[in-house]
Amino acid sequence: MIMGLLDTLFGRSRSSAPVARDRLQILLAHERAGADGPESELLNTLHSEILAVIKKHIPVDQDKVQIKVDRGTSVSMLEIDIEVPALEKGRER
Amino acid sequence: MAKVLVVTSGKGGVGKTTSTAALGAALAQTGQNVVVVDFDVGLRNLDLVMGAERRVVYDLINVIQGDAKLSQALIRDKRIETLSILPASQTRDKDALTAEGVAKVIGELREKFDWIICDSPAGIERGAQLAMYHADCAVVVANPEVSSVRDSDRIIGMLDSTTEKAKGGGKIDKYLLVTRYDPGRAARGEMLRTDDVLEILSIPLLGIIPESEEVLRASNLGSPVTISSPQSAPARAYSEAARRLEGEKLEVTVPTERTGLFGWLFKGRS
């Protein structure tokens, strides 16, 4: 009761349902892409081919390459995140 | 033609057994021949919720193993003569429920009843898979709460991939039943709203059952809420859901409790 009053006075929002909805939407988009969907097959192929190209030039760790797809309504976002070891000074341009 | 309906959810405690009993009784009240089947082997409870716990002699596993005839295991409800229950066994043997056995029993039930309502156990294991395997349609029971909605999504995926119909290239009709809904809290943004849940799960809505004291009262009494207090808000919501299952087009509303002035004055003071 008192907490509720304080929340109202200091304008802290009590509505947690929109947070729940957003968390679920993000999580389920991810889970539906799932372990055996066609999308994950595509991601696996991309993962190994991209890794192969980069390995020709820079030594990278297999586990340090992250590929994600964020499915949107009109466009989807393909996010590729590659962690490379610090490059030697001499090779920097 | 007989219809096999599975009541399922993934998550436990969301109201599968309550909903099976209430929908089964509501369908039977319209004159349909209905059997409710408990698939929760080892943890049977549908008998208790239906008030038939002292009349159980034989069960589903006895029928599957050939120790009893189906007609011996079926318990006729004392209140509605077109309603029967097939109880689960209390055995701890997980392998007692076999795919062939279930197929045989469902086949026999199809000849006797208009509706075969299978009360699924929680989880996504064998019991849940066997409960949904022969289904023509499914009622996915969900609470407006994150873990329940997530599990419902998994179950919908399974209904589309591991059922007999799905394997034959068909699709089973899936409906969402939202239970324990509090319209006030949803309006204040404290609870997921039904349209949020619908948008996330994208299956048609069968009904919204409001949170109500009557549901616990019904299970205390061993009577489906649609029998024990047919005028209560949850009972009306279940009865309308049952009519929708029979193909009626009814707008979905959240029934409210019809209370007198006295009840109204003291409502919400808890």
Automatic annotation (TrEMBL), chain B:
The entry's keywords: ATP-binding, Cell cycle, Cell division, Nucleotide-binding, Septation
Record SUPFAM superfamilies: P-loop containing nucleoside triphosphate hydrolases
Superkingdom in the source lineage: Bacteria
Domain CobQ/CobB/MinD/ParA nucleotide binding: 5-225
Matching InterPro entries: CobQ/CobB/MinD/ParA_Nub-bd_dom, MinD, MinD_FleN, P-loop_NTPase, ParA/MinD_ATPase
Function description: ATPase required for the correct placement of the division site. Cell division inhibitors MinC and MinD act in concert to form an inhibitor capable of blocking formation of the polar Z ring septums. Rapidly oscillates between the poles of the cell to destabilize FtsZ filaments that have formed before they mature into polar Z rings.
Assembly behavior: Interacts with MinC and FtsZ.
Protein family: Belongs to the ParA family. MinD subfamily.
Name under which the protein is recorded: Septum site-determining protein MinD
Gene (UniProt): minD
